[in-house]
Amino acid sequence: MHCGDQLSALIPEGDTRERLVCRECGFVHYLNPRPVAGTIPERDDGRLLLVRRSIEPRAGTWVFPGGYMDVDETAEEAAIRETLEEACLAVADLSLLGVYTRPGPGVVVVVFEARAVGEAQAGDETSEVGWFRPEEVPWPELAFDTTMWALRDWARRRGFEPPLE
Ligand SMILES: [Zn+2]
């Protein structure tokens, strides 16, 4: 990928994991996960916001607003931007809820609790918005494992024990 020679799978000196390495020039091709940032916005009445996805993967399922970070923004800025894009909603008072990893696809999701400011409506990549009390969350219709893990933590912090399946 650097000098044009073939890469070989081997453990570089001083490393502990197998990498794709060029024996010719020493280039190491690291495969790193991609960070995603999102918010779980909460209204004054204690309801949280979810959006229904209108695009693949997992079109039709519910998720909190979030997406891939850009290189020139912080996790907080990315989470606020994605919430505006997907739910047309401004959020404030961000506080870290948790970090959730899907090792297979190589995704690290940074999730913030946030205070909703104003009204929400469907935006880019979404067909619908909904406000849910912890016991009303559509658990069987959530988009990803990370969605479920974060919402479970959110609900438990509010004294609601979410279903395990
Ligand atoms: Zn090379």
3D architecture notes:
The protein has 165 residues and is of the alpha+beta class. The protein folds into 2 domains: 1-31, Ubiquitin Ligase Nedd4, Chain: W (Single Sheet); 34-157, Nucleoside Triphosphate Pyrophosphohydrolase. It contains 2 helices and 10 strands, in the order E-E-E-E-E-E-E-H-E-E-E-H. It has helices at residues 75-87, 145-157; strands at residues 7-10, 19-22, 28-29, 34-42, 48-53, 62-63, 66-68, 90-102, 107-117, 126-132. The strands form 3 sheets. Strands 7-4-9-8 form a 4-stranded mixed beta sheet. A 3-stranded antiparallel beta sheet has the order 1-2-3, with no helix packed on it. The chain has a 3-stranded antiparallel beta sheet with strand order 6-5-10, with no helix packed on it. Strand 5 and strand 6 (62-63) form a beta hairpin. The protein starts with 6 loop residues before the first strand and ends in an 8-residue tail after the last helix. It binds zinc ion. Zinc ion binds at residues 2-3, 5, 22, 24-25, 27.
In a nutshell, what does this entry contain?
Helix content is 16%, strand content 37%. By secondary structure, the protein is α+β, with helices and mostly antiparallel strands. The protein has a four-stranded mixed β-sheet with strand order 7-4-9-8. It has a three-stranded antiparallel β-sheet with strand order 1-2-3, with no helix packed on it. It has a three-stranded antiparallel β-sheet with strand order 6-5-10, with no helix packed on it.
